[in-house]
Amino acid sequence: MYYSCLSILDEIIDNNTIRKLTEYFISLTPNSRDLITVSKIANALKINDEVAVQIILKCEEEGILQRHFGIRCPNCGMLIKEMPTPDLDRISISECYCCDQEISISENDIVILFKLIKIEVPFDLGQQNGQSVRDQASIVAREDTFKAFQIMCETITKSSQEKRLEEYKNKIDKERKEKIHGKAIKKADRNRVINILVNIISIVIALIVIYSVYKRFGFEKLSLFVSFAAFIIPFGCNFIVKELFLTDVVRIEERLSIKYNER
Ligand SMILES: [Zn+2]
Fold first, then answer.
1. 143 C-alpha to center of ligand 1: Å?
2. Which three-class secondary structure state does DSSP give residue 181?
3. N or C: at which end does the chain have fewer Cβ atoms within 10 angstroms?
4. Domain assignments of the chain as residue spans, ordered by start
């Protein structure tokens, strides 16, 4: 049996754990169905309380679970009162009807409970075991106080905010890198054209100079000049121009990212 409405939990837990949750819900009796707690889910699914809280919050959002509150006897752990809101106004309990002990109730004894509301559990499954199950279901763990739940909710919100912030930062970084990469490719293409043009121009200039040297001083001086020009053109032009107009995309990216970081 699989409740399709529980598939919304697949962002939090794997399919196997969703199946375990389904089994847990099916195993609930009419009484325990109203008294679900964080620790009961954590125990049933063998997960930590924080994940259990995440599951509960998601189920609440989807209308599968509904919260209500109760007072737990600080002495025996029995649920001695259920209430719709977590406040102790107008509540005076001085003795536990279960353990017959004198007790004084504080905020630390308010527990948060959840009712299974959307999912129908087959009737015959809920009826077995009678009274003893009822008693077991009514024992609430110390960790299930409303205070502990609120603290865990805060932790979850904080870590999800941090995660979102991190994701946002990564997204911006990625966009910036892509932008720089695009610019670098364009720049490299442009610089390649500039390099070719500068080389052509320098060759033309060299030819003009060689020709005028030949005209003026004759063939003798020309050989010396040609070897000089043959040295200048590849090193002088190619090297300097290539440094000025980079064609290596990686190096352009480096320069651009330094520029971006300075901003
Ligand atoms: Zn008690």
1. 16
2. helix
3. C
4. 4-157, 166-262
Quote the pLDDT of residue 211: 85
- Find the 167 Cα to ligand 1 centroid distance in Å: 48
Return residues with CB closer than 5 A to ligand 1 (ion). Answer: 73, 75-76, 96, 98-99
Residue with tokens 């609440």: 60
Query: What ranges in the chain are assigned the alpha helix state H?
Result: 15-27, 38-45, 49-61, 123-126, 130-137, 146-217, 219-232, 240-244, 249-262
Cα of 240 vs centre of ligand 1, distance in Å, is 89
Are the CB atoms for 30 and 124 separated by under 8 Å? no
The phi and psi torsions of 62 (rounded to 5 degrees) equal -90, 0
Q: Starting at the earlier edge strand, list the strands of the sheet with 65-72.
A: 79-83, 65-72, 110-116
Q: In this predicted model, what pLDDT tens digit does every residue of 33-73 receive, in sequence order?
A: 999 999 999 999 999 999 999 999 999 999 999 999 999 99
DSSP 3-state of 108: helix
CA of 97 to the centre of ligand 1 (A): 7
